Each structure stands twice: as C-alpha cells, then as structure tokens.
Amino acid sequence: MELLVRHYFSEPSRQVTFDAEEVVLRQEAHNDRLYYVLEGELEGYFESDQDGKLTKLFNASNGAFIGVHSFFSGTWVASSTVIAKTQVTLAWIDKNTEPVDPEQYGPLSAQFMPVMVNELSSVKEELSKKRWLKRKHYNACIPRSR
Q1: What is the distance between the alpha carbons of residues 91 and 10, in angstroms, rounded to a whole number?
Q2: pTM
Q3: pLDDT in tens, 125-142
C-alpha cells in the first residue's frame, strides 16, 4: 500500500483541500476520481430520493480511500454523499492516470486490487454488524415467556 501511495498520491498538483461541512462527493453525481485521505475526517451518507434525508454509512480519515466504487466500477457515478467532517486534504488520481510501470506491476486495476478487496471487506463487515444489531434489537423486543 505504501508503494501505491508514494507512486500515485504524492504529487502536490493532484491534491485538494475541503473545508469542514463541504460536500466532496454527491450521491448519483459524476465522479471519475479516486481520493486518498492525507489529512482530516470525512463522513459518507446515503441520501434518500424521497426526502433528501442523510443516513450515515461510514467514517473515513487519514489513509482511507474515497470514491472506490465509482472509480473502479467504471460508472463514474458516486454511490454515496461524502462530506468533510473537519478540514480535509485529499490526493487524487483520475480515469486518465496512467499506471506506473505496468510491465512490472500490471494495469491500474491490478495495482489497486488490495484497495478494492479492503473496500469489499469493510462493506461486508459493516453489513454484518448492522444485521447483528438488528437481530439483537428484535430479540430484545420479544417478550419472554415464564
């Protein structure tokens, strides 16, 4: 991972700063960048189509990647709304970024496979937690017979 960060996310011209409460990504909007959090904290939300209500999905801070789904799925459409919780500095690559040394490391998608696997694992873990909490809450609401 350290090699990826050094190769792809250390160029000052590809870094951007957002203030606290600023929207970094808007759900269903175009996004052709993969962001790496250099500094600060962000929160990701699902935005309801009906009433615009935000449901918190995740927290992200230093060392996290943002925009993984839209970038690697090739849809270039953000799957969540991401808002800076504090001032954040993000480094980025976009769909036009050429892979570093593809003969040795393979295409961009292969080089970032650990990022994609980590993202899938995080989503799976979060869903498991939510199911467990839902069952626990459900079981706590069932009257116990004596």
Answers
A1: 7
A2: 0.81
A3: 555 555 555 565 555 555
The pLDDT of residue 3 is above 90: no
Q: What angle do CA 71, 67, 32 make, to 5 degrees?
A: 45
Backbone angles phi, psi at 8, to 5 degrees: -110, -20
State how far the Cα of 114 lies from the Cα of 134, in Å rounded to an integer. Answer: 30
* pLDDT tens-digit map of 78-114: 999 999 999 999 999 999 999 999 998 898 888 888 8
pLDDT at 72 over 70: yes
106: left (phi over 0), alpha (psi -120 to 50) or beta: left
Taking the CA atoms of 56, 60, 64 and 67 in sequence, report the sign of the dihedral they define.
Answer: positive
The helix (run of H) or strand (run of E) holding residue 115 is helix 113-141
Sign (positive or negative) of CA dihedral 22, 27, 29, 33: positive
Residue found under tokens 């849809």? 75
Name the region of 76 (left: φ>0; alpha: ψ -120 to 50; beta: rest). Answer: left
